[in-house]
Amino acid sequence: MNDTLIYPRKGRRQRSSSWDRTGANRDAVTLEPGGTHTLLSASGAGIVRHLWLTVNAESRTYPRELVLRMYWDGSCVPAVETPLGDFFAVGHGRVAPVTSLPITVVTGGRAEQSNLAAFNCWFAMPFAAGARITLHNEADTPVSALYYYVDYDELDSLPEEILRFHAHYRQERPTEAGLELAASGMTWQEVSSRVNLDARDNYLILDTRGRGHYLGCVLSIDHLNPIRGGGWFGEGDDMIFIDGRPGIGARPRPESAPGANDAWPPTLPGTGTEDYFCAAWGYPAHAHATPFHGVSLAGVPEGEALDYAGKWSMYRFHLADPVMFERAIRVTIEHGHANCHADDYSSVAYWYQQPLAEDLPGLPPLEQRLPRSELESLRAYLETR
Q1: HSE-CB of 127 using CA atoms within 13 angstroms
Q2: From start to end of 266-307, where are the E strands?
Q3: From CA 235, how far away is CA 270, in angstroms rounded?
Q4: Could you tell me the pLDDT band of residue 182, with boundaries at 50, 70 and 90?
Q5: What is the pLDDT of residues 240-262, one digit of tens each?
Q6: Which of 108, 136, 155 is the last residue of a domain?
């Protein structure tokens, strides 16, 4: 239980929803191709407490085609810009069950087979001078039904030091591999002997300037480029650089290592992809959910289908252990050990910061975001294997 609930709170609870204003049961709105619907338009100060929505769309890949944007304090630059499904911790244009503290996705059975789900978010999202939340349909087919609630506290004012919520989508499809894994003799031993003393080729999850707290990420991987004899996509280390501070045990970078702007070693150096996402030994549990970490989409279990790993999504939320930064933060992860894999990577980073971030790259075009089909992914995988 949250002990703060025994103390009176100030504020007035408000709700913006898709309810039928006539009193009938037509509680959904439609969203035509190219259309945008405003889920929330609020003035003054407040804190968004809960977002719930569900969608019935003609396109099965609507979770990548619908774009969620959030604007705070009258800014014309979105602090949140991400495909709908990825924001809710499942990539690849799919839905799957998610049970975490800040985000849940409710689906299963026939609903999951039809890509139908209920999406929930409990990240607190404060604003001092207005808030706007929109959903934009980039598909060429309509959304026949969009249901939603946005619950928020209306406040008289907000303290100046309060940070603003951000979420940002990135992708690299495919990542640029440092090795030719299809070459004969390229084994686990050969790959493991390589080193990465320059994080410049790592996959980039977040790069922002300001003061705030990194809250974690969702990472989605389509494993197209395996090491011979194994379908495991992991072993890539997380490397987080904070305010130009080197990590514990800092020492001069070896002369043989290329130069980089970041101090070395990383402020927070990691030991492997599954380790950062709080698991071990190549995700033996496959899909699993906990309040702060989990695998929402687990692809194909190793040992099946020619060791083809398939499409994966995993989440890590730093709610009990936020990563503080005063000037800047850069969150990266290797795509395989020493960036050996040419895989499709995509991610959403979550964080709080002040001032509002205004130099984040825009969303990639829809045709670049749409996931490969299962057949295309398997074909690319077999070309290496």
Answers
A1: 26
A2: 268-269, 288-289, 293-298
A3: 10
A4: confident
A5: 999 999 888 766 665 555 555 56
A6: 155
Give the whole-angstrom CA distance, residue 325 versus residue 330.
10
Residue 5 belongs to some domain of the structure: no
How many CB atoms are located within 10 Å of the residue 303 CB?
8
Task: Write down which residue in 155, 176, 191 finishes a domain.
Answer: 155
Domain boundaries, position 17:
10-155
pLDDT at 331 over 70: yes
Average pLDDT, the chain: 92
Tell me the CA distances in angstroms from 199 to 179, 237, 379, one per residue in order. 16, 10, 30
Q: How many residues does the chain have?
A: 385
What average pLDDT does this structure show over 66-83? 98
Positive or negative, the CA dihedral 279, 282, 285, 289 is positive
Spatial distance between the Cα atoms of 361 and 369, rounded to a whole number of angstroms: 14
Q: What is the pLDDT of residue 198?
A: 86
Smallest CA-to-CA distance from 185 within 122, 140, 235, 227 is with: 227
- DSSP bridge pairs for 207: 330
CB 364 within 8 A of CB 78: no
Angle subtended at Cα 165 by Cα 163 and Cα 168, rounded to the nearest 5 degrees: 135
| Spatial separation of the C-alpha atoms in residues 237 and 272, rounded to whole Å | 4
C-alpha to C-alpha distance for 198 and 253, rounded to whole angstroms: 9
- The CATH number of residue 95's host domain is 2.60.120.1390
**What is the pTM (predicted TM-score) of this model?**
0.95
Q: How confident is the model at residue 301 (pLDDT cuts 50, 70, 90)?
A: low
Percentage of the residues of the chain whose pLDDT score is greater than 70: 94
Question: 35 exposed, middle or buried (CB, 10 Å; 0-12, 13-18, 19+)?
Answer: middle
Going by their DSSP bridges, the two strands 164-172 and 143-155 should be labelled as: unpaired
| Identity of residue 235 | E
- In the chain, the number of structural domains is 2
Given a contact cutoff of 8 angstroms between Cβ atoms, the answer to whether 345 and 172 are in contact is: yes
Rounded to a whole number of angstroms, the distance between the first and last alpha carbons of the chain is 50
CA pair distance 234, 367, nearest whole angstrom:
27
Q: What average pLDDT does the segment 180-184 reach?
A: 79
Residue 74 lies in a domain: yes
Please return the burial class of 209, using the count of CB atoms within 10 Å of its CB with bins 0-12, 13-18 and 19+: middle
Phi-psi region of 307 (alpha: psi -120 to 50; beta: other; left: phi over 0): left
